[in-house]
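Course assignment 3, question 2. Fill in each field.
Student: A.L.
Task: Predict the tertiary structure for the chain below.
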Amino acid sequence: MLDYKPPSGNTGSGGSADRMPDTIGKIIELEERANSLKKAYLEVYETAEKAKNSLNNLILRDVIDRRYFLYETFPEIAEHMNYTERHVKRLHGQALQKMSLNVTVDL
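Answer field:
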């Protein structure tokens, strides 16, 4: 028969209770980090939304919306809009140029 010996420093009683404050502290740190990342994401999202909305051309706006907010590929956008992929890429380039003139982003 084998004798089981717990790892050194762990007597088998109260080991997990001793780590509870550290675990709670880690959870709080992670929640704070998640909230910070969420805030940063929302700020970037709002900036991107403003840039997209600065486009007066609804077709260009639709291309940007589908590409960056709906995460569609160029072939998917082309299919949805009944354009060739090449034309969608041209429209995408025009939209990016116009947005860069309309919005200055401080990151």
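Instructor remarks: The mean pLDDT is 86. The chain is about 70% helix and 0% strand.
Grade: pending
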